[in-house]
Hints:
By secondary structure, this protein is α+β, with helices and mostly antiparallel strands. The protein folds into two domains: 18-107, Phosphorylase Kinase, domain 1 (2-Layer Sandwich); 112-305, Aminoglycoside 3'-phosphotransferase, Chain: A, domain 2 (Alpha-Beta Complex). The chain is 39% helix and 15% strand. A five-stranded antiparallel β-sheet has the order 1-2-3-5-4, with helices on both faces. Helix 5 packs antiparallel against helix 6. It is globular. The model has no long low-confidence stretch (mean pLDDT 94).
Amino acid sequence: MPKDVYIQPDVPDPILSEELVLALVRRHVPEAQAVTGVDESGGEARTYAIDTNLILKVQRPQQLRPRTSLAKEVFFLRQLEPLPDISVPRALGYGRESALLEYTVMTRMPGVAMRHASLSEQERDAVLFQLGQTLRRIHSLPQTPFSENALFPGDRTFAAVQQRFREYLDELAEVFQTERIPWPLHVSPGEIGERVLASLPENDELVALHSNPYAEHTFVNPVAHTYLGLIDFGDAYISHPTFDLRRWNRPAEREALLGGYTAEVPVSAAFMATWKAVMVLADVIVMAHYPERAAQAADDLQQLLATL
Length: 308
């Protein structure tokens, strides 16, 4: 897997003037009136809120990296336009003002990111169920436009999916060794890697993935605590669809998300076997990077290993 490298880390990263923001937006939405906010979340993009329903999204030039692309996001969103019941932003325009200024104009997702909402367990499960349904619809899109588009990196063969697993597992084993993180199981990380790779059934389920449909990109109604939609397709890549489910790695979250994903159409036995392998990977990631949850992840990992 390619590593993240920021191509031009030392270039300026100014906040655009209101005049320039409105000039860019009005090329695509002439009736735009005013800049109403700037999102300084510190990621690869900066967004400017326009009026009540528009966003200008710009690539922060010092955060430019190969796997993130505004052009790729626009392409993905336009593939979703024939499915208006899938709630995602709608791309209204795209362009480059200069070598350092790439932008997208899109509709603004209402609500708030799920990470900023206090949901009950029942509300959370209902949101994740709908998110699972959304991801299944997205994964069911015709895939030829994505596989033929050079903007989408990733895996085009089963062997490449195997290699993705292998590299993830090797990197995690190295983290435990170099950082001297205690390993609580009698089965070593290396042995787990061998079992995961041996469990993968050969199949050709390869789709364009959102990449990170987690709490910062899943939007909810802040009052009703219901699902509203999914944003940010700029890191999309092609691989097995189960990789879009891995970030929701607590057992209850997994159950709700998978329930929505399989609600309308069942998945194959090969899908479920690969899903188990991805969940093993997710547990090891938690054990390596989130010590406050390591014990729970280790317990869950033991249960998953018994089913491989």
